[in-house]
Amino acid sequence: MKHRLVTCALLAVSVLLGACSNKEAGHQGKAPIVVGFSQVGAESEWRTANTNSIKEALGGDDFKLKFSDAQQKQENQIKAIRSFIAQRVNVIAFSPVVESGWEPVLNEAKAAHIPVVLTDRAVKVPDDSLYVTLIGSDFVEEGRRAARWLVDDSKGQPGPIRIAELQGTVGSAPAIDRMKGFHEIIDADPRFQVVHSQSGDFTRAKGKEVMEAFLKADRNINVVFAHNDDMAIGAILAIEEAGLKPGKDIKIVSIDGVRGAFEAMKDGKLNATVECNPLFGPQLAQLIRDVAAGKPVPKRVVVQEGVFTQDQAAAELPKRKY
Ligand code: GYE
Hints:
Blueprint: H1 2-24, E1 33-39, H2 45-57, E2 63-69, H3 74-86, E3 91-94, H4 103-111, E4 116-119, E5 133-136, H5 139-153, E6 161-167, H6 173-186, E7 192-199, H7 204-217, E8 223-226, H8 229-241, E9 251-256, H9 259-266, E10 272-275, H10 281-292, E11 300-302, E12 307-309, H11 310-316
Parallel strand pairs: 1-2, 1-3, 3-4, 4-5, 5-11, 6-7, 6-8, 8-9, 9-10
Antiparallel strand pairs: 10-12
Helix pairs in contact: 2-10, 5-6, 7-8, 9-11
The structure holds beta-D-fucofuranose.
The site of beta-D-fucofuranose has 13 residues, from helix 2 and strand 9.
């Protein structure tokens, strides 16, 4: 009897131990996948929607999310990634604020055998084995789409068509690529002239500030091309304060497709927005599951998106999830 009891107790202990070591084995057992995520910041409506989508998708029992906000500073992201490495997370994911300067820290992650998933923005590294995959939009195509809208809208109009450009964060993939795509299209038509171009760092406040400065120097602006909706919304305020009508005296096209842009289109103040979908949390969660399980994943995953104009705004607005 005593012997039996001891055997039972031993069995119970070994089952418990088994469960524990299974948990410690990380993602192979039932234990959650520990993910360190470094977000750019909270600079725009797009970013807030993106953060919510990621937190929700990585909020279940399958994951343990360590989330860090870099406040648009690369040095903060590098610090966060180093701390994820020190904590030996299973997967590191991050949306790089700028394209360059990532090699040292990515090499450290590689040396620690921690796979890196890039979200939203690309990096410039000579060795692309430093990250496993990138999930995000095609920013060059978004720039082309904004330009194609403009070409269409200004059919039959005489030149010059004077454009003010509000760039995103200097050195960031979306700023570089959207500018490139936009020029690819407009440079084919000599009527289009980009007469002002400056960064508004993807925020409303800076978009407004930069537009105010443009208008102080020059009231002869026909079009604003803003690299995101928030800067366009800031520019709308500056245009109104200057006594001009946004959407009429100055046409405005921007990128993201956030709720604020649809509201501005409904009011006739913004002319068009090119969609950039931030709601890829669920797709990211699946990618991370695959990466953690050592399954092969595509090097580049592109998010699906479209273009919307004023006539579609009222019908589209209630359907928008961001
Ligand atoms: O367009 C902008 C945000 O990287 C796609 O960053 C993202 C951009 C987005 O601040 O609103």
